[in-house]
Protein 1
Amino acid sequence: MINFDFNIDMRIKDVFFDTAKVKRSVDKATRKALSRAGAFIRTTARRSIRKRKGISKPGNPPSSHEGDLRRLIFFGLGPDKRSVIIGPVKFNQRGNAPQALEHGGFTTILKRNHKTRKFEVKQVRIAARPFMAPALEEEIPKLPKRWHNSVR
């Protein structure tokens, strides 16, 4: 009679996959997908802001008279690398024009008095002219498709 004695020393998780490698792959795919989502939302928001001399109607995206608002919309990954932050940077130290345009409210402007030729600081009320929220709403249905098959 022959006796076969096998000693199998194998870990179950080694049979299936390398956990660290999968986590790295998922993290890399997440960062890439979030970055792409940020870029698409930023582009949609920039495209909604038209460069023209007149002012836009409340409720519609704002007009950009000099192009600053469109140029100053950026995106970046959040500190946890699992979120993306998209929006305009602050124009100057006094005002909050981008926030006032998006939600409505007050902002400070610098206006020149043509009679005295001096500049005056003036606070004005701005009706809401959202541009970031509509861009997000337009891109949300497209996000799952862009995320599909992102982990390799």
Protein 2
Amino acid sequence: MRTRVKAVLALAGVLMLAGCAVPGIGGSGGTSGSGSTDGTSEGTARGGREQVSCAGSASVTLEGRDLRYDVVGDCAEVIVRGDDLDVRMAASTALSIEGRDNDVESSAELGAVEIKGDENDVEARTIASISIAGDGNDLEADTVGSVEIAGNDNGVEAGNDPQPVRVSGNGNTVERR
């Protein structure tokens, strides 16, 4: 039985290296999605990162599991609905995370960050406001505006003292680094 499993995995690896899509394994076998009608996918770039472009007023939705996205340009709204996504982006007026175990890094400023999922990590230069309704999320920024947490075991680390701060739940921290 193990020999058969190894053979199937080896064949899948060869097909992926050859550029063939294997349903359910990597590629775009229906698990990745970018975009509302405003977001456009640029395809997969080097290193397996899919580039998604949006105009200044565009909304982009990122879906799937265990995928990597580069969001190009400043977006009005980025919605992360997938699980275990690695997202690199510039500025956004609104960031909404509904999935689990996502890693989002912004090289610029984020407006309103709303997290309804669990175990997500967000890093940005500035976050205007944070609203968390999930558990086990970690956010870090040089400057943070307001913070509202209604889940458990969440952490916010800022280079300033965020104001106002409203926290309910257990094990939550909002601290200045």
Protein 3
Amino acid sequence: MKEIFVLAEHRRGELRDVTFEMLTKGRELSQKINADLTVVLLGHGVNEFAKRLADHTKRVLIVDDPRLENFNSEAYQRVLSHLIPERKPSLTLIGHTSFGVDLAPRLAAELNVPLATDCVDLDFEGEKLVVFRQVYGGKVNVKASLRKSDSYIVTLRPAAFEVQEVKPLGGEIVEIPSPLTEDITYKKFIKFFEPPAGEVDIAAADIIIAVGRGIKDLDNMPVVKKLAEALGGVLACSRPIVDKGWLPSDRQVGTSGKTVKPKLYIAVGISGASQHVSGMKNADLIIAINKDPKAPIFRTANYGVVEDLFKVVPTLTDRILKEKTSK
């Protein structure tokens, strides 16, 4: 029976969203090629993760080892370079995250299997794998065909797929003995570095209010900041705002910033260049405010307001605050 691997990604006691996004795509592919969908879970004391993942897949292969408690690309590589040749999956999916970028190329090189990175989609055409990637800052989608192989490794861009809930599958949990025989001393986890006080992770936010060059001046930023505070959201931006130094780079949305998938995304004074849109197009609800009726952002938005942001945003903020105080 054919098999597709999905490498579970977890950090600090939480499964990362990209794991369930990969499972959604993995289920689709497994049905197409008649393969079993298998999650590979590496860690220590992660039985609860295994139970949760079993509801989304045919089986969970769990390798429990204290040396896997925190991500270490060398340790992960040693385990996977043992598992993949043994089980011969047709495809191994890994998140295109800081973890995946570190792990996937070295793993593919060791196993001598084709690798495609930062993919936004993929499919099997016959026995050959085709992938879709974005180039020129997201302006062009490229379809690429990988050389024929018995096994492939692909890293998938976070937020590229919408998570689909499924009826619990009750997959089996299989414990695999750890192939690690010694500590890895030349490359080891030291500690997590917390972001500076007051900073936020926009990729984890449910509500994002993003500002673009339409804000015109740094002195006008409080207008949008007040809206973000009224909605309980976070402030983000397009690249011109970072280039001007008005917000730090970790607030930038787009191909050269972060990919986000909030429940609500309000684009304020953002024209909608493809580089920005590719980083937020999968938000559940997108509202655009721009005085230019031909702004490209309106092609992506669910709702659009063609008006001067300096008229709309203060009025919207006041209305939200009044609704809050009236309750």
